[in-house]
Amino acid sequence: MTKPVELRAMSPEQLELHLKDTIKNLFHLRVQSATERLETPSEIMKAKREVARVKTLQRERELEAAKKAAGTATGASK
User: Fold this and answer.
1) Mean pLDDT score of the chain, rounded to an integer?
2) 3-class DSSP string for 13-75
3) Class at the top of the CATH hierarchy for domain 4-73
4) Domain ranges of the chain
5) 13 or 77, which is more confident?
6) CA distances from 48 to 16, 20, 41, 73, 74 (A)
7) Which of 16, 20, 38, 75 has the greatest count of CB atoms below 10 A from its CB?
8) Model-level pTM?
């Protein structure tokens, strides 16, 4: 599990890669769960939370970029 501070330090490309890796890991955990080979069921919940953290951070950055773009567009028309 990656700490939020570490996630915020990542570039958008690194975040996207981390998200893909986490989703792939979540898939493997679900397969293990279905075949009853999963040793720690809490790993699925941890992976889901990690996906949510990354997606939340991506959305925050997206909104921030849109806000800056709207601010520059408004400022340019004055």
Assistant:
1) 92
2) HHHHHHHHHHHHHHHHHHHHHHCCCCCCCHHHHHHHHHHHHHHHHHHHHHHHHHHHHHHHHHH
3) mainly alpha
4) 4-73
5) 13
6) 15, 12, 12, 37, 39
7) 38
8) 0.85
